[in-house]
Specification:
19 helices; 5-stranded parallel sheet; inorganic pyrophosphatase (n-terminal core); alpha/beta; Diaminopimelate Epimerase, Chain A, domain 1; 3 domains; OB fold (Dihydrolipoamide Acetyltransferase, E2P)
C-alpha cells in the first residue's frame, strides 16, 4: 500500500541550537528532544534516565486507601484472595504479578483466567461463583471488570468483597465494588490515564508495599512482568509507562523470572538484549497463543513457576501453540481477504465488517489487524456460533473504535475496549444493521485522506551524518513505542552501491553510498519497492530508522528502510 510521507514541522532554529549547545549533542538530536517537549538539559536528563522516584503516588487513585486496607486484612488473616484476570498478555502478566506479590507476602492466593471460547472476555457470573466455591473472601480483578456491574452485585450477594483493577473505559454505570482502581473512572484525579492493566496492578501492589513499609525496591522483582504487559498492550510509552518499561527491561535483561527466561530461550531471542520490539513480536505472541487456542492458565503457570524444568516444559508448549495459531491465522486471513474482495467491500466502505461461522475467536483480532495493513480501514471481525457473534475490532489513527461501538450500542449485546482495540458480542440477526451503522459512523468521522496511511518523518538527514556517534545518541531515546517512536529520517537523492535484491520472505536488501562509507540497508516486507528504485542514478529517496545489526559476531550500523521512492523529490 502506498503511503503519504509526512515531515514533522521544524522546531525553532534558535531553540535547537541553544539545546544542542547546552547538552553537547548534534542539532538533529536536540530537534528530536524538542519534539518530545523536552526543552532543557534537566528535562533531558530525566527523559534519558527514567527513575522510580518519578512514579506517582499510588494513593492518588480514587478508592486506593479502601483497597489497601482490605488487602492487608486478607493477608494478615490468611483469607483467600482470588485474582480474576484476562487471557491476553496484559491480563496474564497482571494476574501473575499480584499472585507472586501476595504469595511472597505469605498470603493465601489463587488466580483464575476465563476460557476465551467458553466464557468470553471479562468477569462472568460463573467465574464469581467459582471464586465463592473456592472459599474466596476477597476477589480482585485485573485488566477487566470496569463494566461488570451485574457480576459485582453477584459477588456482593455471595458475601465476597471485590476490588476492580482495570484500565479500560468505564461505561455509564461503574460497578458498586469495595474499590475501583482505574485512572479513567469518573472523578479520578490520578495524573496519568494511560497505564496498562499490569501498570494499574503494579500501582495497587505499590500502595500495599508502602503501607507495609517495605523497601522501595521490593517490587523490582516483578518489573519484567510489567514491562512485558505494558509493551504488549501498545499503550503510550510516556510518563509512568516509560519508567516501568525501562526498569522492567533492565530486570528482564539482567535477572528475568525463571518462566520468562525459559520463554526467551525457546523463542531464540538474545539473552540480555530484550527490547520492546522483541516483546511485541517474540514474547507476546507466544503468551497470547495459549489463551487464543485453549487455556491461558499455562501462561500464568509459566510466569509464576519457580521450577526451571517446569518452565522449560511450559515454554515449549507455548511455542507449539504459537505455531498452531499462525496456521489458523493464515487460513482465516485468506478467507477474510477472499470475502472482502468478492463483495468489493473496501471500495465503498470507510469501515470494514466481516462475519462468518467457524472462524476461530482466538485469532480474529490478529486477522483484523492484518486487514488494516491491506485496506487501512477500521475493521471488525466477527465469528458466529449458535446465533451469537463475537467480534474483535481494530482501528486506525483518527478513529476511536470504542466510541464508534458506543454509537452502535443498541445493536450490540456487549462491548468494551479502548481507542484502538475493542471486543463485542452481537446477535447474528443484527450484524447486517451493525455493518451499515458502523460504516456510516466511519464515513462521518474519516475523510478520504484519513484512509491513506501516513509515514511520519521526524527530520531530513544527510547520509554523511549517519554514524556510530549518532546511533549512540538515538539509542538513549529508547524504550520506543506509541508516543515515543523510534526516530525516523528521510534522505533525498541517494546513490545505490550495487543493485538491490529481494532476500528471505520478500525483504528488500541493498547498500547506499555516503561520502565516507557504504551503508547496509534492509526493508522488511518491502520487496514490491524494488521496482521503484533506480540503481543507475542518485535519485532514490529513503525513509528509515537507524539501528544496530549483529551478524556472524559482527555488529554494525544498518538503515531499516520504511519506504522508498525515486525520481523527483516527493512533496511533503
Amino acid at each position: 500500500m502506498l503511503k503519504h510521507w509526512e515531515l514533522a514541522s521544524e522546531a525553532d532554529s534558535a531553540s535547537v541550537l541553544e539545546l544542542s549547545d547546552a547538552m553537547g549533542v548534534r542539532p538533529v538530536v536536540a530537534r528530536l528532544l524538542l519534539k518530545r517537549g523536552i526543552e532543557n538539559p534537566e528535562q533531558a536528563e530525566s527523559f534519558f534516565n527514567p527513575d522510580r522516584s518519578a512514579l506517582h503516588d499510588p494513593f492518588l487513585f480514587k478508592h486506593m486507601e479502601a483497597a489497601v486496607e482490605r488487602i492487608i486484612v486478607a493477608l494478615q488473616e490468611k483469607q483467600l484472595i482470588f485474582i480474576f484476570g484476562d487471557y491476553d498478555v496484559d491480563g496474564i502478566t497482571s494476574a501473575s504479578l499480584l499472585y507472586l506479590f501476595f504469595r511472597d507476602l505469605g498470603g493465601s492466593v489463587r488466580y483464575y483466567i476465563p476460557n476465551r471460547e467458553g466464557e468470553g472476555y471479562g468477569v462472568s457470573v460463573s467465574g464469581i461463583e467459582k471464586a465463592k466455591d473456592a472459599g474466596a473472601h476477597l476477589l480482585i480483578t485485573v485488566d477487566c471488570g470496569i463494566t461488570a456491574v451485574e457480576e459485582t452485585n453477584r459477588a456482593t450477594e455471595l458475601d465476597m468483597d471485590i476490588i476492580i483493577s482495570d484500565h479500560h473505559q468505564a461505561g455509564e454505570d461503574v460497578p458498586d465494588a469495595l474499590a475501583v482502581i482505574n485512572p479513567k473512572i469518573p472523578g479520578s484525579t490520578y495524573p496519568f490515564k494511560e497505564l496498562a492493566g499490569c501498570g494499574v496492578a503494579f500501582k495497587l501492589a505499590q500502595a500495599v508495599a508502602i503501607e507495609l513499609q517495605l523497601d522501595e525496591t521490593y517490587l523490582d522483582r516483578y518489573l519484567d512482568l510489567v514491562a512485558v504487559g505494558t509493551a504488549a498492550d501498545i499503550v503510550p510509552l510516556v510518563d509512568e509507562n516509560r519508567i516501568l518499561v525501562d526498569l522492567g527491561l533492565k530486570k528482564a535483561n539482567r535477572d528475568p523470572l525463571i518462566g520468562l527466561q525459559a520463554l526467551i530461550e525457546t523463542a531464540h531471542l538474545r539473552n540480555g538484549q530484550i527490547d520492546v520490539g522483541q516483546i511485541i513480536y517474540g514474547i507476546a505472541p507466544r503468551i497470547n497463543a495459549v489463551g487464543r487456542l485453549g487455556s491461558a492458565d499455562r501462561a500464568v503457570d509459566l510466569m509464576i513457576t519457580q521450577n526451571a524444568e517446569r518452565a522449560r516444559t511450559l515454554s515449549i508448549e507455548l511455542e507449539q501453540e504459537n505455531r498452531n495459531r499462525r496456521r489458523i491465522d493464515t487460513h482465516t486471513l485468506d478467507e477474510a481477504l477472499a470475502e472482502a474482495e468478492e463483495t468489493h467491500i473496501p471500495d465503498d466502505h470507510y469501515g470494514l465488517v466481516l462475519a462468518r461461522e467457524g472462524w476461530h475467536g482466538g485469532v480474529i483480532g490478529i486477522v483484523a489487524s492484518r486487514l488494516i495493513e491491506k485496506y487501512y480501514r477500521p475493521t471488525v471481525m466477527i465469528t458466529i456460533k449458535d446465533g451469537i457473534g463475537k467480534g474483535s475490532a481494530r482501528s486506525i489513527p483518527g478513529f476511536d473504535i470504542y466510541d464508534a461501538l458506543n454509537q452502535c450500542s443498541d445493536l450490540l449485546e456487549q462491548f468494551g475496549g479502548h481507542t484502538y482495540a475493542a471486543g463485542l458480542s452481537i446477535k447474528a440477526e443484527n450484524i447486517e444493521a451493525f455493518s451499515e451503522r458502523f460504516n456510516q459512523v466511519a464515513r462521518d468521522t474519516l475523510s478520504e485522506a484519513d484512509l491513506v496511511p501516513k509515514l511520519h518523518i521526524d527530520a531530513e538527514l544527510s547520509l554523511d551524518d549517519v554514524d556510530d556517534e549518532l546511533l549512540t545518541s538515538l539509542k538513549r531515546f529508547a524504550p520506543f513505542g506509541p508516543n515515543n517512536p523510534m526516530p525516523t529520517f528521510v534522505s533525498y537523492d541517494i546513490a545505490l552501491s550495487g543493485y538491490p535484491r529481494i532476500v528471505g520472505m520478500n525483504h528488500l536488501k541493498f547498500k547506499v553510498r555516503s561520502s565516507g562509507s557504504v551503508i547496509d540497508c534492509i526493508g522488511f516486507n518491502l520487496g514490491d519497492r524494488l521496482q521503484r528504485m533506480d540503481p543507475n542514478r542518485a535519485s532514490n529517496h529513503l525513509v528509515y530508522t537507524i539501528q544496530e545489526n549483529e551478524w556472524m559476531g559482527r555488529v554494525y550500523l544498518q538503515l531499516h528502510i520504511l519506504d522508498v521512492k525515486s525520481g523527483p523529490r516527493p512533496e511533503l
